[in-house]
Amino acid sequence: MDCSVKFTENNYDFGRIKEADGEVKHTFYVENISEDTLFLQSVRASCGCTTPFWEKEGVLPGDSAKIVVAYNPF
After folding, report:
1. What Å distances lie between residue 4 and 9, 35, 62, CA to CA?
2. Does residue 14 register a pLDDT over 60?
3. Which of 50, 59, 62, 67 could be disulfide-bonded to 32 (CB atoms 3.0-4.6 Å)?
4. Residues 6 or more apart from 40 whose CB is under 8 A from it?
5. Burial 23-62 (b: 16+ CB within 10 A, else e)
6. CA-CA distance, 34 to 47, in Å (whole number)?
7. pLDDT confidence tier of residue 20, bands split at 50, 70 and 90
């Protein structure tokens, strides 16, 4: 089973945000460049203060999936 993926970007800096503005989000895109269906079983952020959300359905070869990372300053 070949599970090769390609990310449009590997990291994102939210920069300076205002607490009063509330939650901020960023979307990462991952493309399945293998010949097999890809299943994202676990996604971890580099910091415990951000929460990732991702599509649990299989990603067919040539298709892309979204991983949304949210940070809530409250």
Report:
1. 15, 9, 11
2. yes
3. 59
4. 30, 54, 55, 56, 59, 65, 67
5. eeeeebebbbebeeebebeeeeeeeeebeeebeeeebeee
6. 29
7. very high
Angle at 65 between CA 30 and CA 49, to 5 degrees: 75
Half-sphere exposure of 33 (CA within 13 A, CB side): 8
**What digits encode the pLDDT tens for the residues 23-56?**
999 999 999 999 999 999 999 888 778 899 998 9
Q: Sort residue 21 into left (φ over 0), alpha (ψ -120 to 50) or beta.
A: alpha
- Please tell me the pTM assigned to this model: 0.83
Nearest to 55 by CA among 63, 65, 47: 65
3-state secondary structure of 40: coil
